[in-house]
């Protein structure tokens, strides 16, 4: 036995850890993803501008209340002490409050109740909260009949040893914890009308079905799996589906609808400057999704991710593709290895576009110093931030990584 351990000790140092694999883009190549300086602390940053800035402001003001005033830099190291645990709770509170503000305001119709109905015209919600000090997460997926999805995610984090609850069982947990169950569901008159038009006028286009009958490109369901196709037909179908995912087929209007259906997530990171960091995500998912579908939003490392020793990331876009890559985990780990936020964001996006060139993605990345950046593909992405003594939230416009223009800050 001793000789076996001696042999292992001789071999193990020769094994290269998986974490040391090279980035998809070298720092010198990251020309389109500009790293912006820190605005000071406390700081909040999240996906999308426009109506989503209501969340930025709500979270930032929460941090001001808990920390007293803005500052130009961190006050302590990111170690889990009683002091920093209190600030981590403040950061979690800020992210929860920001996401809840977006849920209540139905930001862009794509967060909270009354938006993105599924094939059966029901709205369900996904949400995630993550503590940057402990790396503990709480999340809900396919939550039915309860509006405060991020609040239920916080209850999962605070009152269970689990990370994720889903479906009707998540709803039951929410009710046990004092949340109100909406008997009529989470739909509204507007969402019911939109779903009816999608079914009757648009003949259920676009949708997410493949290899089913009737033909999902021309008819609504119910659908049944197609079986007995020849090898040539199966190869052709797989090729077409791959091209659809890559954005190579479909009219401009169809592609626009697909991208708009992906514009459905707020992901936020809060840094209080005293060692507390947190991240979170809230979404009502992709419009016309197959009932029961869960996207990347409630998945730690995909919808958002934070490590108080390094930084955090929030994501939006085509979640069914993005969750295959855990882009936010990738971006944070790239920063751990020395990449700047812009380099880390672009690296994570390029890993996805190498396999799926037409995918719509948007990442916002911030390090523990408050330096921040975004990267995108398939569309022009925006993110919002506010920090230090800023009087108003600012919005950064991020062109797709293949574009010629640089990201620019605008109020």
From TrEMBL:
**What is the designated name of this protein?**
Aspartylglucosaminidase
- What keywords is this UniProt entry annotated with? Signal
Q: Which residues form the signal peptide?
A: 1-20
Q: Residue spans with biased composition (Basic and acidic residues)?
A: 235-246
Top-level division of the source organism's lineage: Eukaryota
User: Matching Pfam families, A to Z?
Assistant: Asparaginase_2
**Region annotation Disordered: residue ranges?**
207-260
């Amino acid at each position: 036995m001793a000789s076996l351990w001696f042999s292992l000790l001789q071999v193990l140092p020769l094994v290269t850890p998986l974490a040391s694999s090279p980035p998809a883009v070298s720092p010198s190549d990251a020309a389109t993803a500009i790293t912006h300086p820190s605005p000071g602390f406390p700081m909040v940053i999240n996906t999308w501008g426009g109506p989503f800035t209501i969340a930025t402001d709500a979270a930032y003001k929460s941090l001001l209340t808990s920390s007293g005033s803005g500052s130009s830099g961190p006050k302590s190291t990111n170690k889990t002490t009683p002091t920093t645990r209190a600030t981590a709770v403040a950061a979690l509170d800020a992210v929860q409050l920001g996401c809840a503000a977006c849920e209540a305001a139905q930001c862009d119709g794509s967060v909270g109740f009354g938006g993105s109905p599924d094939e059966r015209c029901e709205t369900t919600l996904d949400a995630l909260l993550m503590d940057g000090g402990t790396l503990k997460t709480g999340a809900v997926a396919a939550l039915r009949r309860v509006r405060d999805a991020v609040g239920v995610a916080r209850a999962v984090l605070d009152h269970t040893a689990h990370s994720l609850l889903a479906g009707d069982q998540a709803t039951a947990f929410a009710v046990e914890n004092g949340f109100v169950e909406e008997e009529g569901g989470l739909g509204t008159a507007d969402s019911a009308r939109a779903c009816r038009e999608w079914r009757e006028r648009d003949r259920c286009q676009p949708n997410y079905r493949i290899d089913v009958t009737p033909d999902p490109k021309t008819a609504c369901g119910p659908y049944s799996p197609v079986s007995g196709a020849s090898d040539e037909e199966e190869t052709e179908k797989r090729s077409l589906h791959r091209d659809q995912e890559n954005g190579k087929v479909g009219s401009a209007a169809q592609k626009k609808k697909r991208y708009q259906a992906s514009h459905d997530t707020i992901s936020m990171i809060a840094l209080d400057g005293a060692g507390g960091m947190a991240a979170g995500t809230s979404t009502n998912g992709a419009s016309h999704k197959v009932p029961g579908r869960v996207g990347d939003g409630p998945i730690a490392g995909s919808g958002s991710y934070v490590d108080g020793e390094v930084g955090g990331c929030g994501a939006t876009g085509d979640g069914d593709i993005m969750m295959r890559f855990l882009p936010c985990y990738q971006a944070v780990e790239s920063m751990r290895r020395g990449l700047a936020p812009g380099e880390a964001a672009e690296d994570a996006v390029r890993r996805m576009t190498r396999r799926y060139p037409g995918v719509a993605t948007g990442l916002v990345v911030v390090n523990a110093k408050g330096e921040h950046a975004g990267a995108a593909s398939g569309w022009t992405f925006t993110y919002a931030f506010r920090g230090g003594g800023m009087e108003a939230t600012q919005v950064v416009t991020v062109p797709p990584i293949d574009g010629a223009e640089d990201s620019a800050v605008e109020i």
